[in-house]
Amino acid sequence: MSNLDRSPVPSVCGGRGFVVAEPVRELLSPRHVQLGGSTEVRRLLPNLGRRMIGAWAFVDHYGPDDIADEPGMQVPPHPHMGLQTVSWLHEGEVLHRDSTGSLQTVRPRELGLMTSGRAISHSEESPRSHARYLHGAQLWVALPDAHRHTDPHFEHHPDLPVVTAPGLHATVLLGGLDGVVSPGTAYTPIVGADLTLAHGADVRLPLRPDFEYGVLSMSGEAHVDGVPLLPGSLLYLGCGRTELPLRAESDSGLMLLGGEPFEEELVMWWNFVGRSHAEIEQARADWMTGARFGEVKGYDGAPLPAPELPPGPLKPRGRVR
């Protein structure tokens, strides 16, 4: 997933200095961004109030959109470095192509996990023959310094482990939850889980007190630790929890995002995650000159040009603003 904002805001994320060390209930509002074709997304991370949740550094929620007579998602080839992209669908399908030669259609409740490492480029589009509705989330995971120059690669996991309780079905897409571990490659202590709640469900989900957490509402209406969540909203929960009360007012879909607070400070601009202004500047130059990021073959269209860098150097702003 690309950040198509033509004036992306640079920020330095990470570091433990702004981690909330106790349970909180901080509701984050989305920013609406056009993503190409007929897709508008609700951007929840980075947010004016919070930049990261564990290693999760970017969260977009989109749909459900009726694209029966529309092209749907159409995101041209664009670059990434220093991160993983997580594609997660509730409805529809997305065709992924990348510069390593990967070609994969990702369908609902299947994990599409792309590790950019030092450099990759990819495109995402709704297939020409596609389902009527498109609904999902696109997320980024920051790579720690020890792994951010790894070889780029793509993983597709159609079968994922689950955790169940009365009224709850949790699919573990990344990391571990309640002793169940995803096959997706993770480079930091992390969890991503898709939670399906039946109407009237009242459960408590086990958590790790050393992780910080957030919950994204995908559909329906549910109460998370007593806070009502509507689709397209994100509740930050802080650290220090051993369990999370969940109650569904209707059939509901949520995403649990969490992990060990990310210690390293990151400069994130456009589709790059680095450690300095110079590194981001070089990545932009490499993309614009056709170096390093490779070629996405088979996409019918031109690559996405990079926006201009801001006039001044990229400056730190921390985990929160």
Structure, described:
- There is one protein chain.
- The radius of gyration is 18 Å and the shape is globular.
- Strands 2, 14, 15, 16, 17, 19, 22 and 24 form an eight-stranded antiparallel beta sheet that branches. The protein has a seven-stranded antiparallel beta sheet with strand order 3-4-5-12-7-10-13, with no helix packed on it.
- It has one domain: Jelly Rolls, CATH 2.60.120.10.
- It has one helix at residues 277-288; strands at 11-14, 23-28, 31-34, 40-45, 56-66, 74-80, 83-91, 94-98, 103-106, 111-115, 120-125, 133-142, 153-157, 162-165, 168-177, 180-181, 190-197, 202-206, 212-219, 222-224, 227-229, 234-238, 243-248, 252-259, 265-269, 272-274.
- With 321 residues, it is mainly beta.
- The two termini are 24 Å apart.
- A hairpin with a 2-residue loop joins β14 (162-165) and β15 (168-177).
- The longest helix is centred in the last third of the chain and has 12 residues, at 277-288.
- The chain has one helix and 26 strands.
- InterPro entries: Pirin (IPR012093), Pirin_C_dom (IPR008778), Pirin_N_dom (IPR003829), RmlC-like_jellyroll (IPR014710), RmlC_Cupin_sf (IPR011051).
- Belongs to the pirin family.
- Residues 193-292 form the Pirin C-terminal domain.
- Keywords: Oxidoreductase.
- Residues 41-141 form the Pirin N-terminal domain.
In short:
This protein is mainly beta and 321 residues long. The protein has one helix at 277-288, and strands spanning 11-14, 23-28, 31-34, 40-45, 56-66, 74-80, 83-91, 94-98, 103-106, 111-115, 120-125, 133-142, 153-157, 162-165, 168-177, 180-181, 190-197, 202-206, 212-219, 222-224, 227-229, 234-238, 243-248, 252-259, 265-269, 272-274.
